C-alpha cells in the first residue's frame, strides 16, 4: 500500500504508512508541500506598541527558517516583510526596535516600512535601478484578535473562518500574553504523531486521568471542516465551563473547552480563563518542539476545569507519542485502522497529508 493512500471512508481506511514518520525525504518534502503554503503564527499586536515598531522573527526556526520582520508603518498598519536585504542578503533587523525606515547595516540600503526601496548609496551608475526586485517582499498577514499569522506560499482562505465564526463572541482583543505561563516542550517524536494524538479524544480515559475527571467523554464530539476541526469538550457536573451567549450554537451545553486545530500544526485551546495556543514545530524526523503560548482573559479562572494541569497532560502525551515513534519502526507494524466514532480528526488529518504530499 502506498505511503499516501488513505481511503475517504473512515470505515475502510488504513492510516498513513509508517514511512511518513521515519523518512528524511518525506520530512524535507513536507516543508514546501505542507508548511510553506500554510498559515503560521508569527506574533501578536502587543509586540508592536507604536507606529515604527519593528519585530524580527524566524518562521518555524530550524525547519522553514525564514527570516521575517513585523512592522507597524506610519499609518498604523501592521505588515509582515522579508527581513533580508535585497542587495546582498544581509539580515536587516536583528532586535526589536523603532525606526522610520529599515536600514541595512552592511552597505546602507534603506527601505520604507511598507517594504518599498528607499535609498542606496553608490548606485548612481547602475542601469534599470531600482526595480520591483529591489523592494522587500511583503507576505500575507492574517489577524485573529491580537494574534498574527503569515505564510510563504499560496495560503488557504478556508483555514480560519469556521473557528472565527464559532468563537466570534469570545473577547480575543482582550487577551494578554503571559510569558511566565508559557512553556516550550521538546518531544522525541515526529511532529505528525504529536498532532494526530491531539486530534482524537479516544485516548483521554486511558492516558489523562485528571482531564478525564473533568470532561464527559460520552459527550465528547469532533466536527470536521476543510482545513480545520473542532473537538468540543463538555464539562462534568459542576466543573468550570463557558458562559455562552443566547443564540450561540452551543448555548445550553456545558462547554469546558474548545479544542480547535488548523492544518497542519496550530492548536487553539480555548478555556474560560483564556487561550493556550500550541505551535508544533518540526525539528527533525523524530524531534519536535511544541510551544505553549498562554493568553489570559480572566485570571480568576486559572487553575480550574479542563484548562488546568496542562503541563501534566503534556507530559502524558509526550510519553505516549514517544513510545509510538519507537513502535512504528517495528518490522511488525505498517498501518493501523480508525475508530469510526472516535478518530475522525486523525483520519481527516491523514487525508489532508495524503492529498498534499501524494
Q: Which descriptors apply to this entry?
A:
358 residues; 27% strand; five-stranded antiparallel sheet; eight-stranded antiparallel sheet; alpha+beta
Describe the model.
The chain is of the alpha+beta class and 358 residues long. It contains eight helices and 19 strands. It has helices spanning 19-22, 24-35, 161-166, 191-198, 204-207, 209-212, 310-327, 344-357; strands at 40-44, 53-59, 66-72, 78-82, 97-98, 102-103, 110-111, 117-119, 138-139, 141-144, 147-150, 176-177, 183-187, 221-224, 228-234, 255-262, 266-271, 274-284, 287-296. Strands 12, 13, 14, 15, 16, 17, 18 and 19 form an eight-stranded antiparallel β-sheet that branches. A five-stranded antiparallel β-sheet has the order 5-2-3-4-9, with no helix packed on it. Strands 1-11-10 form a three-stranded antiparallel β-sheet, with no helix packed on it. Strand 10 and strand 11 form a beta hairpin. Helix 4 (191-198) crosses helix 7 and helix 4 packs antiparallel against helix 8 (344-357). The longest helix has 18 residues, at 310-327. The chain is globular and about 70 Å long.
Provide a quick synopsis of the model.
With 358 residues, the protein is an alpha+beta fold.
Task: Provide the fold topology.
Layout (H helix, E strand, L loop, with lengths): L18 H4 L1 H12 L4 E5 L8 E7 L6 E7 L5 E5 L14 E2 L3 E2 L6 E2 L5 E3 L18 E2 L1 E4 L2 E4 L10 H6 L9 E2 L5 E5 L3 H8 L5 H4 L1 H4 L8 E4 L3 E7 L20 E8 L3 E6 L2 E11 L2 E10 L13 H18 L16 H14 L1
Amino acid at each position: 500500500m502506498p505511503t499516501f493512500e488513505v481511503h475517504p471512508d473512515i470505515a475502510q481506511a488504513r492510516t498513513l504508512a509508517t514511512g511518513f514518520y521515519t523518512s528524511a525525504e518525506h520530512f524535507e518534502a513536507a516543508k514546501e508541500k505542507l508548511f510553506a503554503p500554510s498559515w503560521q503564527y508569527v506574533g501578536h499586536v502587543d509586540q508592536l506598541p507604536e507606529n515604527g515598531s519593528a519585530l524580527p522573527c524566524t518562521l518555524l526556526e530550524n525547519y522553514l527558517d525564514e527570516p521575517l520582520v513585523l512592522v507597524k508603518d506610519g499609518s498604523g498598519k501592521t505588515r509582515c516583510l522579508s527581513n533580508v536585504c535585497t542587495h546582498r542578503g544581509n539580515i536587516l533587523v536583528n532586535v526589536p526596535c523603532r525606526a522610520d525606515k529599515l536600514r541595512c547595516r552592511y552597505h546602507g540600503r534603506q527601505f520604507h516600512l511598507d517594504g518599498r526601496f528607499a535609498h542606496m548609496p553608490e548606485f548612481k551608475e547602475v542601469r534599470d535601478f531600482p526595480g520591483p526586485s529591489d523592494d522587500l517582499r511583503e507576505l500575507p498577514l492574517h489577524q485573529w484578535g491580537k494574534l498574527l499569522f503569515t505564510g510563504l506560499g499560496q495560503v488557504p482562505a478556508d483555514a480560519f473562518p469556521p473557528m472565527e465564526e464559532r468563537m466570534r463572541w469570545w473577547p480575543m482583543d482582550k487577551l494578554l500574553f503571559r510569558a511566565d505561563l508559557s512553556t516550550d516542550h521538546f518531544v522525541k517524536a515526529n511532529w505528525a504523531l504529536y498532532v494526530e494524538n491531539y486530534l482524537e479524544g479516544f485516548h483521554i480515559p486511558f492516558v489523562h486521568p485528571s482531564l478525564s475527571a473533568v470532561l464527559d467523554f460520552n459527550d465528547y464530539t469532533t466536527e470536521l471542516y476543510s482545513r480545520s476541526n473542532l473537538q468540543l469538550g463538555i464539562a462534568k457536573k459542576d466543573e468550570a465551563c463557558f458562559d455562552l451567549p443566547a443564540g450561540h450554537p452551543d448555548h445550553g451545553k456545558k462547554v469546558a473547552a474548545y479544542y480547535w486545530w488548523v492544518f497542519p500544526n496550530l492548536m487553539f485551546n480555548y478555556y474560560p480563563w483564556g487561550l493556550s495556543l500550541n505551535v508544533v514545530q518540526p525539528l527533525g524526523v523524530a524531534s519536535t518542539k511544541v510551544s505553549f503560548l498562554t493568553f489570559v482573559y480572566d485570571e480568576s479562572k486559572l487553575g480550574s476545569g479542563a484548562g488546568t494541569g496542562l503541563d501534566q497532560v503534556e507530559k502524558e502525551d509526550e510519553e505516549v507519542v514517544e513510545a509510538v515513534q519507537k513502535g512504528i519502526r517495528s518490522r511488525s507494524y505498517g498501518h493501523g485502522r480508525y475508530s469510526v466514532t472516535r478518530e475522525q480528526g486523525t483520519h481527516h488529518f491523514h487525508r489532508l497529508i495524503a492529498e498534499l504530499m501524494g
